[in-house]
């Protein structure tokens, strides 16, 4: 994930994350959303490289 920066902050008692790509804000996510996003990236990488899940 070249050029991606994730910054955490608390908004009304909820941990949220700002996601930046190449210095531009592209969105906000909660922790669950961030974890799901990382899982999708990992699955796509495994499909692209032909790796098997353990």
UniProtKB/TrEMBL annotation:
Domain of life: Bacteria
Record's protein name: Uncharacterized protein
Protein's organism: Thermoflavimicrobium dichotomicum
């Amino acid at each position: 994930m070249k050029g991606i920066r994730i910054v955490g902050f608390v908004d009304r008692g909820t941990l949220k994350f700002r996601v930046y790509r190449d210095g531009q804000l592209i969105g906000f996510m909660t922790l669950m959303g961030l974890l799901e996003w990382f899982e999708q990236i990992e699955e796509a990488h495994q499909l692209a490289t032909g790796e098997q899940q353990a």
